[in-house]
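For homework, think about our next protein:
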Amino acid sequence: MAAHTTTQLYLTTPFMFEPRRFADDLSAALDAGPVACVRLRLRGASEDELKFAIETLRPICHSREVALIIADYYKLAAQTGLDGVHFEEAAPDIEEARKALGPDASIGASCGTSRHRGMSLGERGTDYVSFGPVRAPANLHNGELATRSLFEWWQAMIEIPVVAEGGITPDVAAELVGAADFVASCRAVWQHPEGPAQAIRAFHEAIERGPIAA
């Protein structure tokens, strides 16, 4: 993924879902407004279950010119022709992933709030990094949050794009316009009370509005 002059929306799937049912939600979301990328996550799934999810969701994404990448399983991404991999929990094997996926694939990695980790992974060949969480989840105790100043520092110092994730709502996305290249959201889209299409519209309205001056 390349850096952009405006912040773009990036979606992550829930950790658990039934692909055929989720397909309707994904279609509705992608039809409601531009999305740069969808990251497939299915914790505890078998390889066959992951392949079924890929077969179900890839046509939905690709027919709308949206990249579909997978969390961690870079070998499976190569086998199934996905657009890339994002290392969330697995140790990032950037070099092997690049060999498997080729030069045009998108390779990203989660970096928490560590500038050093981000720079190190950038030097090893990631196409982008992500920082987060931006807002504290319920299970975050004494962990650090990724602040706007972290993203501003990255933009000033590093050329590769940066994604903000973790607790991203439309209002949080608005606060990060001009600092993060992409904002990655999950719950705020799939659990929106009026459905994912309305969530996407709310995100785009917020991004267009941008930060509210103090």
In short: Residues 8-209 form a domain with the TIM Barrel fold (CATH 3.20.20.70).
